[in-house]
Amino acid sequence: MPLIDKLVVCGVGLIGGSFALALRNKKKVGRVVGIGRSKESLERAQALGVIDEIAPDWASALDGADFVLLAMPVGQTDAVMEAMAPHLQAPTIVTDAGSTKRDVITSAYHRLDAHLSRVVPAHPIAGTEKSGVQAASARLFRGKRTVVTPLPENDPAAVERVRKAWQACGASVVDMVPQDHDRVFAAVSHLPHLLAFGLVHELAGRANAELLFSHAASGFRDFTRIAASHPEMWRDICLANRQALVGELDQYLGELALIRSLLLSGNGSRLEQLFEEASQARTKWGEELMKNVTSQPMAGTEQAVNPAAR
Amino acid sequence: MPLIDKLVVCGVGLIGGSFALALRNKKKVGRVVGIGRSKESLERAQALGVIDEIAPDWASALDGADFVLLAMPVGQTDAVMEAMAPHLQAPTIVTDAGSTKRDVITSAYHRLDAHLSRVVPAHPIAGTEKSGVQAASARLFRGKRTVVTPLPENDPAAVERVRKAWQACGASVVDMVPQDHDRVFAAVSHLPHLLAFGLVHELAGRANAELLFSHAASGFRDFTRIAASHPEMWRDICLANRQALVGELDQYLGELALIRSLLLSGNGSRLEQLFEEASQARTKWGEELMKNVTSQPMAGTEQAVNPAAR
What we know:
The structure is a homodimer of 310-residue chains. Chain A has helices at 14-25, 39-47, 58-62, 77-84, 102-111, 156-168, 178-204, 209-215, 218-223, 231-240, 242-264, 268-293; strands at 4-10, 29-35, 53-54, 67-70, 93-96, 119-120, 122-125, 145-148, 172-175. Chain A is of the alpha/beta class.
């Protein structure tokens, strides 16, 4: 039995495309309509069978829609919500897949204030360094987590339908307060992306960049995998969450200052202790991760995914 | 036909054990003798069939040895070379697997000055975040690179035998000047390890560490994999190469200062451009890497390797 009759996906890329494919795969969706900036990308999504049709405008997209997923870079949220607002019908549930929540919620209060009972912000914790609908996969969310940050104004039935949609994609759903969400992900996701982008950018700009890259091995490969991520998406995340992110960066800079002083003073015992604490924490976390994911491969491998094989 | 009759491995861990296993696997070695600090680790190596016997001292180890691999943490090099020196026989080739080369070479000049024609420093570019002989694998070096940094005093035949031994393990061999080696690996290996150790250490020390780790996903997993590495080994590398490493760290801190200012001023277009340059460079490098390694899996996956299955 379909959970969603007419699904509208705005931004049919890795995340929006994978959501559509996962629901299709489970026969939980009737019709999938795509809308977005790039006609070429929408046509590719249609050719790949990710969406059934391309909506020419929001009036047509929202006509009879019962579920909208906003999956474009978060910097577009405000403009998209403004464009949607005049055409939004009372029963339509609106959710999003943004990596930041406070900015999305601010736009919702500003642009969709008449519809707040059915605007349920969410964030699927999945992705790879690949982007675009050609990287989408029905399996992307399996064994992963989706964070939902319900609004006080939300109709509990709307929140429940958003939860059910993500569960149908194979994700487990947890609730968080938006402020906590943005602080936690600044630390464990946004900062690591920033650090990886920074390292690759700095090395790539050097005169001997080719020599350096030619000697880089598996440690560098994994450390910098996320530096291949979508630049616009990450620009938007970093700007939307810059307050928390600068706080995290500054805390990290404090750590690097400590490490630098230990190096300069040749303090081997404190350096080893620091590495030991990190190594133990990382090993413990890695073991728990393996227990939880069991046979589920995590997203984010170097291997190309062939959409035709899905 | 064996390339090496009696092989001595000092420090039978991940690297030393994998070297022995790879040569055994190709029937390129007669007898493998282990020596090291930890009796327990040597006994494990013997039980796993990585070494044939445990040498009680250097006199016995070096008696009739034709090839010695030093594979303990680089901080021990000077003391080990001092202990070896009185027992070293003229034909014995000595090489090492240290991640830094200038410190190893300084010790060689200091401790093995009568033997320099046969001391050939090298560095296999392979490893995982796992350590110890139980993580060793005959396949560790396949499709990888070993850097050899020959000394002007080296007998070319000795250099050639070291090259052949690493090639027998499946590695391709390149020559480098030691100073270049240490600078290049400070940038593409030692700094990323330091940054990963630092991030995990900083997060693990927080009151809400458990909450943070519980939300960390595949980006964090790969970024921090190397933070599970061997603390003593990395203390030694960081101290041995601290001059180059502090230089790299300072250059990186300059990059982070730039990124911080772009965040604070909300300069989205320059931030996106920086991310774009990094993303393009990393994507290009990743594609070249995949071409080169073809079907060779790179070391460093989360999966446990079962030594019994090798």
